[in-house]
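Batch manifest, entry 17 of 40.
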Amino acid sequence: MDPFGDDTPVYVISVAAQLSGLHPQTLRTYDRMGLVSPGRTPGRGRRYSMRDIVMLREIQRLSQEEGINLSGIKHILELQRDNVRLREELGKAHAALEELANELESTRSVAARLAQQRRHGEQGGTPGSDLVPIRHTSVVVWHERDRD
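Output type: structure tokens
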């Protein structure tokens, strides 16, 4: 779930200003600085989402309560966005690593079975069977197939 709220741009600037407790001109300034970038209508009117409203409130909090200037706030927001993006990439990398580990385990299992068959002088396992690789969601799974 998104911690910043809904991304649907629906609020005109006057409503966004009321909901955030800021002046409309402040919202325009934040937009020009790239702190909050609302959606646009075909006529170029700004439309703010609930996520934007929450972000505007956070900018106000950082400025008023923490004493951070707008340049510092912009840097903080960029770092937060980078952090979210990197966490997503890390999650994908972990999933790929798990997939590769499963594939490696499957391959090792097949290699061990083949080595065991070789030690016992067997050519292809049980008579009439063969090992056939089958790929499921990019993970190789080996199955024995009966030869006809």
